[in-house]
Amino acid sequence: MNNFLIDAHLDLAMNAIEWNRDLRKPVFEIRQRESGMGDKPDRGNGTVAFPELRKGNVGLVVATQIARFVAPGSSLPGWNSPEIAWGITQAQLAWYRAMEDLGEMVQITGAAGLEKHLTRWADESLPAEQKPLGYILSLEGADSLVNLSYLEKAYEKGLRACGPAHYGPGRYAPGTGMTEGFTETGKDLLREMDNLQMILDVTHLTDKGFNEATKLYKGPVWASHHNCRALVNHQRQLTDEQIRILIERGAVIGGVLDCWMLMNDWERGINKPAESGISLEKLIDHYDHICQIAGNSKHIAIGSDLDGAFGKEQSPYDLETIADLRKLGDLLQKRGYSPDDIENIFYGNWLRFLREAWK
């Protein structure tokens, strides 16, 4: 596949709809247009756009819909009703559809579409600009599902993965920063996802929620963007025991490139990647830890979360754009990873997982 890459977590539509970024333009043009804007900390620091995805041969991504409901008085950004949050996710879906109409993207919803897309990207006679970016639709945080009937509506529109939690309180499951487990409606959500044979994303679940989900849910499970708590001591990270459970379930864990998940005590807006020594090597430290537990490289991959409300100011200093994910190949080789291991991490593990899930 000639260095083909799969990235299992990108908030593309959020960047387009809420950050007002035309992702068909190159990263550097988007940065220039945002120069001097101060409404968000990552303005002028974006790393992800379609030209750079193609340059890096990132031909398949798990692309999100995301819209949180927030109760009165919440310190978290979000929307004031589940219905509004649903509307935002539908605006995001409309953007994906517009990109499909332009030939920029193609939605992948099952095995046949996956294989067809891989064949197209393997065709070296086609120039990169004629290869649409494949995307698998995932919902990050389930708050926007007004009720359980909306899960089936979303599935009919192509939703194939769901992470019930995000940050803070959740209508179905609390997330990062919380301690409680699934609500009763959240447990019903898991059962409905099972009925639809969807992929459960355990990312952002609390420890209690993780334990409940992995016991209740019978279908395929992945951790789209997660690192290791043994290296960065925060509830957002996976414990060694959680990693073992995921390995037993045949899961794949996507390594994430947000600096605060790569180094202990990182402070947003204060620490700088270069001064803190945060390079892509830090991600490989997390890979190494998981490989030592697994005894192989079959459970690690890429789930970068690049431009997930942060940019170059909070990414490894040796990553200018998402195209630089390809640098991981040489770095992994220097750390003793074989060509087969690198192939696993770049795309092989996600493909094996998807082929098994979509039999």
Could you explain the architecture of this structure?
This protein starts with a strand and ends with a helix. The mean pLDDT is 97. The chain has 359 residues and is α/β, with parallel strands linked by helices. It contains 13 helices and nine strands. β3, α5 and β4 (133-140) form a beta-alpha-beta unit. Strands 1, 2, 3, 4, 5, 6 and 7 form a seven-stranded parallel beta sheet that branches. The protein has a two-stranded parallel sheet with strand order 8-9. Helix content is 38%, strand content 11%. The chain has helices at residues 12-17, 27-34, 50-55, 82-101, 111-122, 149-156, 184-196, 207-216, 240-248, 273-276, 281-294, 327-334, 339-357, and strands at residues 5-10, 58-65, 105-107, 133-140, 159-163, 199-201, 221-222, 253-255, 300-302. It has a single domain, classed as Alpha-Beta Barrel (TIM Barrel).
List the helices and strands and how they pair.
Layout: E1 5-10, H1 12-17, H2 27-34, H3 50-55, E2 58-65, H4 82-101, E3 105-107, H5 111-122, E4 133-140, H6 149-156, E5 159-163, H7 184-196, E6 199-201, H8 207-216, E7 221-222, H9 240-248, E8 253-255, H10 273-276, H11 281-294, E9 300-302, H12 327-334, H13 339-357
Parallel strand pairs: 1-2, 2-4, 3-4, 4-5, 5-6, 6-7, 8-9
Record keyword descriptors for this entry.
359 residues, alpha/beta, two-stranded parallel ribbon
Question: Can you summarize this structure?
Answer:
The protein is α/β, with parallel strands linked by helices. Helices cover 38% and strands 11% of the residues.
